[in-house]
Amino acid sequence: MLTSVDPDVIRVLGDPLRLQIVTLLARETLCTTHLVEETGARQTNLSNHMKVLREAGIVETEPCGRFTYYKLKPEVLAGLSEQFAALADSARTATENKRACP
Amino acid sequence: MLTSVDPDVIRVLGDPLRLQIVTLLARETLCTTHLVEETGARQTNLSNHMKVLREAGIVETEPCGRFTYYKLKPEVLAGLSEQFAALADSARTATENKRACP
DNA sequence: CTCTCACATCATCACCCGCTGATACCAGCG
DNA sequence: CGCTGGTATCAGCGGGTGATGATGTGAGAG
């Protein structure tokens, strides 16, 4: 399969702050306040990034009183892992598949 | 390990054109001319992206006469795959690790 | 030797994107 | 209820980034 990885998800994870958020969320479920403390970013900035992550389907929200908890969707990361593994696998055999010079 | 994935590599792969290039190179080793044909992008544009991919350590160049062949470095993709797998694994158990509301 | 082609580099421009401040919304609590 | 605090949304600004054209370099053909 010519499974090209979904560029959107990768682009979303390409931002350093968002990647930090994802790394934090991979350890524990956190709410916005915690993320503000951990990252040092402004709340409004965080909220923006969380929206991006939400729309990319990487995180889920879970309201708890007036707090909003975020947790990762492991299957998305697992999917990425698989797709990269497939690319790596394909790349290993591609070294010999050299198209002729024109 | 709190192996946060390298943001640089991911950001490089976040660009749709570069991801297309990587997908193509995962199938066969190609030179710039082939990539121009396949992607429809300008040569100078391609060369820019190839430079980015080269500096990110994702591809290797192999001169062949006056042509330059590019091939992927599978270990980079494999590393990404592992790191995402680790994140996904960690995320699966993180759902219960909910930090208390402040 | 010279000319041509493949490729890389440089400088420039325009545009997208993330950061910021202001503001609206919603849930508890008194 | 009204107030307070946590969160989301919106408009605007500035910097980073990708696309483009001109130019340089090096290898092979004639």
From TrEMBL, chains A, B:
<dbReference type="Pfam" id="PF01022">
    <property type="entry name" value="HTH_5"/>
</dbReference>
<dbReference type="InterPro" id="IPR051081">
    <property type="entry name" value="HTH_MetalResp_TranReg"/>
</dbReference>
<feature type="domain" description="HTH arsR-type">
    <location>
        <begin position="1"/>
        <end position="92"/>
    </location>
</feature>
<dbReference type="InterPro" id="IPR036388">
    <property type="entry name" value="WH-like_DNA-bd_sf"/>
</dbReference>
<dbReference type="InterPro" id="IPR011991">
    <property type="entry name" value="ArsR-like_HTH"/>
</dbReference>
<dbReference type="InterPro" id="IPR001845">
    <property type="entry name" value="HTH_ArsR_DNA-bd_dom"/>
</dbReference>
<dbReference type="InterPro" id="IPR036390">
    <property type="entry name" value="WH_DNA-bd_sf"/>
</dbReference>
<keyword id="KW-0805">Transcription regulation</keyword>
<protein>
    <submittedName>
        <fullName>Winged helix-turn-helix transcriptional regulator</fullName>
    </submittedName>
</protein>
<keyword id="KW-0804">Transcription</keyword>
<keyword id="KW-0238">DNA-binding</keyword>
